[in-house]
Write a structure and sequence with these properties.
heterodimer; A: 511 residues; alpha+beta; Alpha-Beta Plaits; eleven-stranded antiparallel β-sheet; ten-stranded antiparallel β-sheet; 8 helices; B: 697 residues; 4 domains; six-stranded mixed β-sheet; five-stranded mixed β-sheet; globular
């Protein structure tokens, strides 16, 4: 008798292999674009595609897409299956190519997907970590602390061979709900668009509940040690994504002490320049921990991070603060991980390089793309910290969609969403977007937009109503526009736009 | 030499329990290839796509099985499926495209797997579509070739993506670059295993079983490049690629894929893309019953007046993605389907995961207690799942009660006690004691929905009580649902199973196992009624003749015998005693003993025969005996025997009544919670016939 989940895993292995072995998909081709978020040449550097993508060419439609922008920097990643099967090593990356936009560079490469990275059948455990209750403007010291936290968290997952499904920071903080405000969420307090929070998810085999419980216990112990806030996704049945169960609140004093003790010498100024480092390689448990540990050992902190796996290839996108005392230009670069480390130390490190560490063997043959050092900017106001005297607060709006493949590309859809929200907002940015090709030839995606309403209100209920109205009006407008845009049957379009994350779900659809 | 052999067990002596042992055995036994075995990459891609689709079968929204009980011991199955090609994604579609020729309709066509079945069944399968046209199939030979190509491809993908592929000293690097013959050997072994197939539960029989090989290093000192070093490298490469413990846990999935590929065939049909929705039907190979010899039980059923039922159980597997499954049964018109019930294990994986969670939390209650909110989250997660289980099974129970009420002879709720109403404390106390009966789970569900179960971490539930709940859940078989018959005919049955709208184990592709329980019986107008009439007639006849001969009814109770009991003219009496039973017996349609009806009627036929034997014996006696006393005693004896037979007939009627009013089948395959809910305490019995259509046995 085989174990109960073995059929599930074996059919997942068969699915991965079948997808990887398709007639033209021996490897994964990827394109990374690094650039400033709001350059002078256009709002959003999402792809380098030509003006009119050839609809007959299958490679014009990426199967997976990810975009992340923070602190004025943005990175977007697209992947395609590729027929190229012979290249040295497991991943290769080309030289940076200038896209014509200021400071914006594209990097293309190929990677061998890892069919052994089986996580579809796992149970997702999602964690929301709070590293502060002020608005998001991390110092060098906080960047180091954040790197430490990422390293510890992913290390806990790696000890159990649990794959990191995604990791993002900064994300929207989740306000504490009171008993009287439970229920449909209509009374949920408005959330900040971004805060000093970290959200990550790992996959655990559902039959190994011991491993899951140990992970959660150690997580709670870690939170206690550093004073960080810890919320876990609500594991009750019929609870949607975006509902959190508070395990520990944020302990400001303890966190401050721990930070001061761990990094007494680190500077407490806010970095003015930052760069993006994208580390790419075949997915495997423990790689994020290895990468961040190597950086931290060299005194490099992490300002922001977006880690995700696409087609069994992991993309570790890190925004690294450029050291205040380094005044070099630090041009764009791409190459192997081991060659990248000295460069990173030059521009962002504080300590001399340490001898090689054991964990780095895991990603020794991974490739890195580095953006040029860019100026970074931070949001000036936050609802949570009371900096709302003007009412000009950035609010988050969540987007979920499902569209037939090869109809409307994710960048086009996001542009459309921004246009639809335009009448209600003074500013609208895509903070995060991810889409992937799912079973049944549909592309599913999620995104978080940061909007600043054009009307300024200080009243909680009024803002809430405005946000809801704006989201609903925009949703209708996009649904009307999409059929014309991509020749897609209106009956097959699923799209939800909501100021509350947990209202996004359609019946019977899994995210 | 013998000593050596004893010290190092040969390959053949190793147990075949390990997941990849058949492959290892073949690596030891096959000649080492000197050239690569190259498959076209297109075939490999096709093989992988077919394998993927045939495991999930998510392009089959509906599956129907029509069972016909041919005779005792054989069941024929006709399977029909709805195929929707729209569920096959674009990239897989490109791979599955049939090259070159066009489909009969003129357009392009795809190879689409529609089923998997055991390699044991070699009867030809003819697939027809809704218009009755035969649909072309991929031959087994081709299917085996593309499957082998798929595994060779999968192996090379796993090697290419392995983290040690760049380390020159590692076996993976050697397999990939420097010692390719070892890799070819693994590939040849996989190909051989898939082409030949491997039997279930046996070890492979290889030439190594017949040879005594020298011990390692005994002859050549372990030269590099000889076949032994290559086999060793191949085996150690497998060990690195599929570590038994830790690592990527890849061994079990890979071994399971290989196991299924070697034990089953795929049924692959060529379907045109011009009609994406199709209805296909085929006759599955005839299913033999798995006889379970229980001589005492069979004897008891045949010699006691139990009004036996013929119980058939049928077990099959439904792909988890199938949304609707219909099981219909048809028997001869003379037979009635008294009960028809289907139970599937659709929630069993969910219950197993829940039970494991319960056990883990129980073991860690102390550690988790330090993080109070973490324990509370776990407890709430557990409570929500328990409540959902209670709700689901209650729905099942309600549909079962409705089924009992709409039977031709309804079974009322009189045997079941009225439902208990429990308070929160009572529920928690009952659960802590391991009582996971439906009453308790339903009450738990109600209290959970009414917010009565907050702060569970502080209740008595958190701790060792969770272990009792886990055991209780497993014992009550809460993960199994119940689907009932909805066919109005008496000689047919139909169960319609639907996948729950919210799948509790959404990521699982484990097939759902469904068991159908069918009790076949002889209902009115039944043979036993005719036989009872016949036996009563014969009794009356013997009584009448005796009374006429003695001139009164005193012979029945008096020991004195009247003169002239022995008739002068015996011929007339003999003729009556012989002719009447013969005529009556001829009116009864007695079935053949091989059929199911024959089994049902076995005892009743004995009763009929016995009554005729009695009258015939009496006729012989009348013709030969001349003594009045003896004659009277023989008449009395015959009458007594006939009354006993008549009594047996009445017992049959009583037994039939008991069977009819039985609320829950006495079968081990009916979920425990259902038997508990109706307080069925009698022990379960084995079925008369068990048909197993799960494909891997």
């Amino acid at each position: 008798m085989t174990s109960p989940a073995s059929s599930t895993k074996s059919s997942e292995l068969a699915r991965i292999a079948a997808e990887a072995a398709g007639t033209s998909s021996a490897s994964v081709q990827f394109t990374l674009i690094h650039g400033p978020m709001n350059g002078h040449d256009g709002p959003l550097p999402l792809t380098v595609e030509s003006a009119d993508p050839d609809k007959e060419d299958p490679d014009a439609w990426p199967t997976d897409f990810c975009h992340f922008s923070v602190a004025g920097l943005s990175v977007s990643t697209s992947t395609w299956p590729s027929a190229i099967s012979t290249f040295s090593g497991r991943v290769q990356i080309g030289p940076p190519e200038h896209t014509g936009r200021r400071d914006t560079y594209a990097y293309s490469g190929h990677a061998v997907p890892n069919p052994g990275f089986i996580h579809q059948s796992t149970r997702k455990v999602e964690v929301l970590i709070t590293l502060g209750n002020q608005h998001w403007s991390p110092t060098y010291r906080e960047a180091l602390m954040q790197a430490l936290v990422i390293e510890k968290l992913t290390g806990l997952a790696a000890e159990r061979d649990a794959p990191v499904l995604h990791l993002h920071t900064p994300v929207a903080p989740f306000p504490q709900t009171h008993v009287s405000e439970r229920g449909d969420g209509s009374n949920e307090r408005l959330r900040d668009a971004i805060g000093p929070c970290l959200r990550f998810a790992i996959g655990v085999d559902p039959t190994m509940s011991d491993a899951r419980l140990d992970f959660e216990t150690e997580l709670a112990a870690l939170a206690e040690e550093y004073g960080i806030g810890l919320k876990l996704d609500d594991q009750r049945l019929n609870r949607a994504r975006g509902e959190w169960f508070t395990i520990r609140g944020f302990d400001r004093e303890r966190y401050r002490q721990a930070r001061g003790k761990l990094f007494p010498e680190a500077s407490v100024v806010i970095p003015r320049r930052a760069m993006i480092a994208s580390v790419v390689g075949p997915s495997r448990a423990g790689t994020t921990a290895a990468a961040v540990a190597a950086l931290r050992a060299r005194g490099i902190g992490v300002l922001a991070a977006s880690i995700s796996s696409m087609r069994k290839t992991t993309f570790i996108n890190l925004v690294l603060p450029v050291a205040a005392e380094s005044s070099g230009k630090f041009p764009q670069w791409s190459g192997g991980w081991l060659e990248a480390l000295p460069r990173l130390v030059d521009c962002a490190g504080h300590r001399p390089s340490l001898p090689d560490e054991s964990g780095e063997g895991l990603i020794a043959d991974w490739k890195v793309a580095l953006s040029p050092a860019m100026r970074c900017s931070y949001p000036q106001s936050s609802q949570q910290t009371g900096a709302t005297a003007t009412g000009r607060v950035p609010y988050p709006i969540w987007l979920w969609w499902q569209l037939p493949y090869r109809t409307v590309g994710t960048p086009a859809l996001l542009t459309e969403v921004q246009a639809a929200l335009q009448p209600h907002t003074r500013r609208c940015e895509v903070a995060y977007a991810q889409s992937r090709l799912c079973r049944g030839d549909v592309v599913r995606g999620r995104a978080k937009l940061i909007v600043m309403l054009s009307q300024e209100h200080r009243d909680h209920a009024a803002v809430q109503r405005l946000l809801t109205d704006a989201a609903e009006a925009a949703q209708e407008r996009i649904r009307e526009r999409l059929p014309a845009l991509g020749h897609v049957d209106a009956g097959r379009v699923r799209l939800r736009l909501s100021p509350r994350e947990r209202w996004l779900m359609y019946a019977g659809a899994s995210a | 030499m013998t000593v050596n052999l004893r010290r190092t067990p040969t390959v053949a002596e190793r147990s075949a329990d390990g997941p990849l042992d058949h492959l290892r055995t073949l690596i030891q036994a096959l000649p080492v290839p000197t050239a690569p075995l190259t498959f076209p990459s297109r075939e490999a891609a096709l093989g992988l796509a077919l394998m993927d689709l045939s495991f999930r079968l998510d392009h089959l929204p509906r599956l129907s099985e029509h069972l016909t009980l041919m005779d005792r011991g054989h069941m024929s199955r006709s399977i029909s499926v709805d195929v929707d090609l729209a569920f096959i994604s674009g990239r897989l579609r490109d791979t599955l495209m049939v090259p070159g020729e066009a489909a009969p309709g003129g357009g392009a066509s795809l190879w689409v797997p529609v089923s998997r079945y055991s390699r044991r069944d070699l009867a030809p399968v003819v697939i027809r579509d809704s218009s009755g046209d035969v649909v072309p199939r991929l031959s087994h030979r081709d299917a085996n070739r593309v499957t082998a190509a798929a595994f060779v491809m999968l192996l090379s993908m796993l090697i290419n993506a392995h983290r040690e592929v760049a380390a020159p000293t590692s076996p993976i690097h050697q397999l990939r670059h420097t010692h390719q013959r070892s890799r070819w050997l693994i590939e040849a072994a996989i190909t051989e295993l898939i082409t030949v197939g491997s039997p279930v539960g046996q070890r492979l029989h290889t030439p190594l079983d017949h040879a005594v090989l020298p011990a390692p290093g005994a002859r050549d000192g372990g030269r590099t490049g000889d076949s032994r070093s290559m086999r060793d490298l191949a085996l150690s490469g497998l060990d690195v690629l599929f570590p038994a413990a830790g690592g990527d846990h890849l061994m079990v999935p890979f071994a399971r894929l290989l196991q299924l590929a070697t034990r089953q065939y795929m049924l692959v049909a060529q379907l045109g893309l011009d009609r994406p929705r199709r209805f296909l039907t085929w006759e599955a190979p005839l299913l033999p019953a798995q006889h379970r010899p229980a001589p005492l039980q069979t004897l008891a059923k045949n010699v006691l007046p139990l009004n036996r039922e013929f119980v058939v159980e049928y077990e099959t597997e439904i792909p988890r993605s199938v949304k609707a499954y219909h099981l219909t049964l048809e028997v001869r018109q003379e037979i009635s389907v008294r009960r028809f019930l289907m139970s599937s294990n659709v929630d069993e994986e969910f219950v197993e995961v829940l039970a494991q969670d319960l056990e883990s939390v129980a073991r860690r209650a102390q550690r988790l207690g330090r993080h109070h909110k973490l324990l509370e989250l776990e407890m709430q997660g557990i409570a929500s799942r328990l409540a959902e289980l209670g709700r689901r099974r209650l729905v099942d129970l309600a549909s079962y009660e409705a089924y009992l009420a709409r039977l031709p002879i309804p079974v009322g709720p009189e045997s079941a006690p009225p439902p208990r109403r429990l308070t929160v404390d009572e529920v928690i106390a009952a659960l802590s004691a391991g009582d996971c009966s439906l009453d308790v789970l339903s009450a738990f569900c109600a209290h959970y929905a009414a917010d009565g179960l907050q702060h569970l971490a502080r209740s008595g539930l958190a701790g060792p009580a969770l272990l009792n709940i886990a055991n209780g859940l497993r014992a009550a078989q809460v993960g199994r649902d119940v689907t009932t018959d909805n066919d109005p005919r008496e000689h047919g049955a139909h169960a319609h199973w639907r996948r729950p709208s919210v799948d509790l184990s959404p990521q699982s592709t484990e097939p759902v196992r469904a068991v159908a329980y069918m009790a076949l019986a002889d209902e009115a107008p039944a043979l036993i009624e005719s036989i009872t009439r016949m036996v009563s007639g014969l009794t009356l006849m013997v009584l009448g003749i005796g009374t006429l001969l003695s001139g009164g009814i005193a012979w029945l109770y008096s020991s004195e015998v009247s003169e002239g009991f022995a008739p002068e003219q015996a011929d007339a009496v003999v003729a009556v005693l012989l002719l009447v039973p013969g005529l009556l017996l001829a009116r009864l349609a007695l079935p053949s003993t091989r059929s199911v009806l024959g089994q049902l009627h076995k005892f009743q036929r004995t009763l009929a025969a016995a009554s005729v034997v009695v009258t015939t014996a009496l006729a012989i006696a009348v013709g030969t005996v001349r003594s009045d006393v003896e004659m009277a005693r023989l008449f009395q004896l015959a009458l007594a025997v006939l009354i006993v037979i008549l009594f047996c007939c009445l017992c049959e009627f009583y037994a039939r009544r008991v069977h009819r009013s039985s609320s829950v089948p006495r079968s081990a395959r009916v979920p425990r919670w259902l038997r508990d809910a109706r307080r069925a305490t009698r022990r379960t019995v084995e079925p008369d016939d068990f048909f197993d259509a799960r494909d891997e046995v």
